[in-house]
User: Fold these one by one.
Assistant:
Number 1:
Amino acid sequence: MIEVVCLLIFISVVLYALFDQGFAAAIVLCGAFWLSGWYFAHTTVATECERLGKFYVGKNVYQCSKIETIEDK
């Protein structure tokens, strides 16, 4: 996932530097930031649930319970 974000950042730099497309570069960069935020949020929640069985958002604490494990085929 980090590789995809880095690739999107590189594409935005190329769009801006070589093709002078600032708006397109900004759109691609926003996509990269959104994707990295989504990835890190899901990773943090999964890590907290595995370690503590709970995670918190602000003053709220949420209880986690494992439903099933999906095995690789």
Note: The chain has a mean pLDDT of 90.
Number 2:
Amino acid sequence: MSYRSSFPLIAFGTPEDLTGWSISGTPVVTGSQDDPVGGTDASLVNDDDGGAVEYIYKIVPITIDGTHFSIVAAKEGTSTVTDIEIYDSTAPASRVIARITWSTHALSILSGNGTALGLIAIGDGYYLAIFTVESVVGANTNVIRLYPAGSTASAIGTAYFYVRHFLIFGEPLDNANSFGIPQPGSQFARTPGGVEDAWISGTDQHLRGQVRWIPSDVQSNPRVSSPWNGDGEVAGVPVGWDHFLNVFARDKQTFLWIPNRTLSDSVNISSYLVEPMKSPPALEVDFTRSLALWIRSSTGSKYRGY
């Protein structure tokens, strides 16, 4: 299968353990559920009280005022709708509530100030709900709330959630090229008589390509794309490319390279960043950024399809 025209996805950082989040009401949270990247780090959340709104929540340490964006992976359970809210508990005020309507697989803004950017299908029936939240006050205590059956007291039902940092590509990886290179320590020799020999300790698998049209801030036109900037410090209100490179990948932490986001549960490769380690991004003609990305498999798996 070729992935040259597919939209990749990067998943990085430790998935949130939703069984450890705070609860409002008595929702039942069951961990160790199948997740969209082939693991079991998702949780099933059950709102089983038709007389009260039930949800799980966690403080999001946003420090900068203004507009931010949120990405949460959710999967349909028994509920008809699922809501995601960014709430300012200092004000107190709801900044935005985004709603997933499962019958149409549509994302909308139920209330507050924000923009629904997209609902992107990924692996194992999950969707990435992506939206902006405006008027955030960084000095206040901001909270992300997950409502499995919506934010209406009479509603009951379940939904699956997987909360982790994601980088969304708005374009396929340009000029993608996969290849193997002998590992460090390999030796090559030639005798005076012209006989050659080699001692190869192993082969590293690499992938290089160009990440094109990275916007400064999250956008949905022409397609949803993770931005260069991004100020969240936890999954759910995520970071952008700059944070991924400088805080995570250049620190030689592994991440998942997903060549086709719709197959994220079955096709992904644990990877290290090779480049860029020190070089800056280039600029496109429209002043978006372009990044020469070079990654190496941490397990020796080949980057097939390129």
Note: The longest helix spans residues 241-248.
